[in-house]
Specification:
The chain is of the alpha+beta class and 177 residues long. It has 2 domains: 62 residues, PGBD-like superfamily/PGBD (Muramoyl-pentapeptide Carboxypeptidase, domain 1, Orthogonal Bundle), CATH 1.10.101.10; 70 residues, SH3 type barrels (Roll). The chain contains 3 helices and 10 strands, in the order αααββββββββββ. Strands 3, 6, 7, 8, 9 and 10 form a 6-stranded antiparallel β-sheet that branches. The protein has a two-stranded antiparallel sheet with strand order 1-2. A two-stranded antiparallel ribbon has the order 4-5. The longest helix is centred in the N-terminal third of the chain and has 14 residues. The relative contact order is 0.16.
Amino acid sequence: MALKLGDQSYEVEQLKRQLETLGYSIGRINGEFDARTDDIVKAFQEEAGLKIDGIVGPTTSGALSQATQGIVTIPNIGGALEQFAAPASRPEANISGDFIEGRWPAWRVIASGLNGRSGPGLEYPVEYVFPNGQRFSPHQDYTHPIQFDWVGKPWMVVNERGAAFFVRANRKFIEPV
């Protein structure tokens, strides 16, 4: 059974939990497939290289399952959920190419002209352009180097010349070194 905008069911609630596990800012977890859920499903489909239609059929469902396999969710002391990638010597990217964990000492730009923005999301202005091959590190003033934009795409807060810039935390653009 495919899930789509307007549906209400337990399966939609499970879908929202999967998207939240991947780091998407899903908002309230309930059984309603609302406009926000539709936007986030489309963002996931785009990053996974799938047909972008907002419908969670067998292909999108399979991609979501594969993307969430290596992520363990455990409660922290306050009862909220924290996510940790499965142990690895280097950060692993999910099926969408996203690095959910940014704790690696050095990264390198692998795309020509990576934009450094003033905030996490395309709505923020470009303030610096990182050339291909440039190395950088997560910004030391941020406890969590990965921040998420309004649809849940991860952005890394990096240090460049003492300033904080946000770059897209995706293997299309950066790699750990």
